[in-house]
Amino acid sequence: MQLTLHRTYYPTGTNGVLKLDDELICYTIExxxxxxxxxxxxxxxxxxxxxxRYSENHGNHLILEAVEGRSLILIHPANNALEELRGCxxxxxxxxxxxxxxxxxxxxxxxxxLATAAINKKELVTLKIVKNDKQ
Length: 135
What we know:
- It holds the Pfam family DUF5675.
- By secondary structure, the protein is α+β, with helices and mostly antiparallel strands.
- It has an 8-stranded mixed sheet, with helices on one face. A two-stranded antiparallel ribbon has the order 8-9.
- The protein is globular, with a radius of gyration of 13 Å.
- It has 2 helices and 10 strands.
- The two termini are 27 Å apart.
């Protein structure tokens, strides 16, 4: 299963549209692009494998594997990228501003359920990140 994240970049945050095939799953927020600086930037466009992960801090969530120059890039809930993210990706139900959104937990549960079902069936789950063509 391949999820595709279409990003739009702004100076104060990065917004995205997450799709499976052509179906909208949710929106996403991330930090602005700052040359892939650890904990300060969103990650580079590319294709990354998603795997299940558990931590005390985030509970069940997803992690992106093999991100060049980076580690611990997670998909977890957050509503404000600048205040709550350190390079990770947060699903949101609606976008409210660059790097900001609402109802992240509901959107996150949807993404986690979808990816986990595929992973549990031993399917390869990838996230392809691309720049929005309309920029």
